[in-house]
């Protein structure tokens, strides 16, 4: 609307101005501002001669061309009035007389096509940019704000991939309808791009009203969409920013809302977050880490630590290799921070191969009875070359396959289940042990245990942490141990931090223990030293546990 030559304006059901062409303000001056009454711009509509016709259109009647009064010597003026979803629109004509109603209707159709998204009927990206700039320019009061809500659909890609693009288009149309239904006067919705939408909210008490609207939108997407008889669940994540507080021009405000949207996605999706400066700092830090991570491997900043696996009463049977990153400026960065970045950026194939090769080479320096466990990322299964990589590393390093245990989480089985089970079966045929890590979290489907012969189940430390006092945790852990043994699967308990936990697990015939109580993660040289001294170290720890019984 900033670029149109039309004297165009839109009004809500309270007869208040919501959007207008820049040219209209040039003609009527300061009276043109969001929230202005239609009578302030067109006072003649208060006249009984025009009021009835205007009200007829306002209440859903057909469009009308109304001749406006003019001063002596002034060119003819007319107003084409047409109903909209939220009120009325007016196109004023000056000069040679107004166009016919048919001509004006055709003109409105063309104007609508230029400013609205064809698929959803919402206003389009171009209209969004114009109206955002216009709303920001109209801010006058120091405490006045506009709210921008950026909306992104959660899991939309999965719908396109599984049900087809036709279903995706239908979903976008239904989503647009839910957004439209949640709006009140002074709120306008736009389809920004793909499955991204935006809402501009004017003249409200902020931040309360923006948070209210965001909550309504999140709730609106909790019910399933029914497409071709199939219920589809797609949530919404929302980022909120306020002008001029978070930006005095459209680009600044959109960046702030995008950062808040990213925070909503990171916090679990299906929620709304309001921009704050700390989000920007976190995003900048994350981007710096992302750039650094791309060169961390070649710079030798990645390294492994090894945590012992203990078979009661006192045998060290192997170690789990744990990836670490020592950033030259930041220091040691937790895997929970940098692994998701590596997965998202497609770095896990290279990093995963390095980890596998490094761990296997280290294991060759240990007694031949000891195993090494290596974690696999779900991202390593996506390329289809995992089995070749593992086979090549085993051949190049020269380690026996049965000394290598690969640990996966249930996330691997949730993604492309059939292909991933085939990959695991191939690895199993090579003689490599397969462990299901973090068992008890996620879905813990028993079908996994039936469909694949896991060698080991690792009970998640969540259930071990309160094992001494919580009867529910005791029941769950006992059941997992009995279930696994019934299937011929070994059980490892993670996160053993106290002698009481170790005693309880030993009493319940848990096959293997892992945790700081029995041995913290160690560097390569310290691991070799631990192996030399481990019989005495572990015996002492176990003796302490037994004396406490």
From TrEMBL:
InterPro entries: Biofilm_reg_signaling, EAL_dom, EAL_sf, GGDEF_dom, Nucleotide_cyclase, Rev_trsase/Diguanyl_cyclase. Residues 144-277 form the GGDEF domain. It comes from the Bacteria. It holds the Pfam family EAL. Residues 286-535 form the EAL domain. Transmembrane segments: none annotated. NCBIfam families: GGDEF. This is GGDEF-domain containing protein. It comes from Mesorhizobium kowhaii. The lineage of its organism: Bacteria, Pseudomonadati, Pseudomonadota, Alphaproteobacteria, Hyphomicrobiales.
């Amino acid at each position: 609307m900033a670029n149109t030559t039309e004297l165009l304006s839109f009004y809500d059901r309270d007869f208040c101005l919501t959007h207008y062409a820049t040219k209209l303000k040039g003609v009527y001056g300061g009276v043109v501002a969001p929230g202005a009454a239609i009578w302030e711009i067109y006072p003649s509509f208060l006249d009984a001669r025009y009021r009835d016709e205007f009200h007829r259109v306002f209440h859903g009647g057909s469009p009308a061309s109304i001749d406006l009064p003019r001063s002596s010597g002034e060119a003819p003026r007319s107003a084409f009035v047409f109903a909209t979803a939220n009120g009325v629109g007016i196109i004023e004509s000056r000069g040679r007389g107004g166009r016919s109603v048919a001509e004006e209707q055709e003109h409105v159709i063309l104007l609508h096509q230029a400013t609205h998204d064809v698929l959803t009927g919402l206003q389009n990206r171009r209209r969004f940019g114009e109206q955002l700039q216009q709303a920001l320019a109209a801010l006058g009061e120091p405490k006045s704000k506009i709210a921008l809500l950026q909306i992104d659909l959660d899991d939309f890609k999965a719908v396109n991939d599984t049900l087809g693009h036709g279903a995706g288009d239908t979903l976008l149309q239904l989503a647009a309808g839910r957004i439209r239904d949640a709006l009140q006067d002074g709120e306008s919705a736009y389809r920004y791009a793909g499955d991204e939408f935006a809402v501009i909210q004017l003249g409200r008490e902020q931040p309360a009203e923006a948070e209210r609207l965001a909550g309504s939108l999140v709730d609106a997407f909790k019910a399933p969409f029914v497409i071709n008889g199939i219920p589809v669940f797609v949530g919404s994540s929302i980022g909120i920013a306020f002008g001029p507080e978070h930006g005095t021009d459209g680009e600044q405000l959109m960046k702030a809302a995008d950062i808040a949207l990213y925070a909503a996605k990171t916090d679990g999706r299906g929620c709304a977050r309001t921009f704050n400066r700390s989000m920007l700092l976190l995003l900048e830090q994350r981007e710096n880490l992302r750039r650094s991570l791309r060169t961390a491997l070649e710079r030798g900043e990645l390294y492994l630590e090894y945590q012992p696996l203990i078979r009661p009463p006192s045998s060290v049977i192997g170690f789990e290799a744990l990836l670490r990153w020592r950033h030259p400026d930041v220091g040691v960065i937790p895997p929970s921070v940098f692994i998701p970045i590596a997965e998202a950026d497609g770095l896990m194939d290279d990093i995963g191969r390095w980890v596998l090769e490094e761990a296997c080479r280290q294991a060759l320096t240990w007694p031949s009875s000891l195993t090494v466990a290596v974690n696999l990322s779900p991202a390593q299964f996506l390329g289809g070359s995992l089995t070749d990589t593992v086979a090549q590393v085993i051949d190049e390093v020269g380690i026996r396959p049965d000394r290598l245990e690969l640990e996966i989480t249930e996330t691997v089985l949730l993604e492309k289940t059939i292909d991933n089970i085939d990959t695991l079966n191939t690895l199993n045929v090579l003689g490599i042990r397969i462990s299901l890590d973090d068992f008890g979290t996620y879905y813990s489907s028993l079908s996994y245990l039936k469909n694949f012969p896991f060698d080991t189940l690792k009970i998640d430390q969540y259930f071990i942490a309160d094992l001494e006092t919580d009867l529910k945790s005791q029941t769950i852990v006992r059941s997992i141990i009995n279930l696994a043994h019934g299937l011929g699967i070994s059980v490892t308990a993670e996160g053993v931090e106290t002698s009481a936990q170790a005693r309880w697990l030993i009493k319940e015939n848990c096959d293997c223990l892992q945790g700081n109580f029995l041995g913290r993660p160690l560097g390569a040289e310290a691991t070799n030293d631990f192996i030399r001294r481990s019989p005495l170290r572990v015996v002492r720890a176990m003796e302490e546990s037994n004396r406490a019984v």
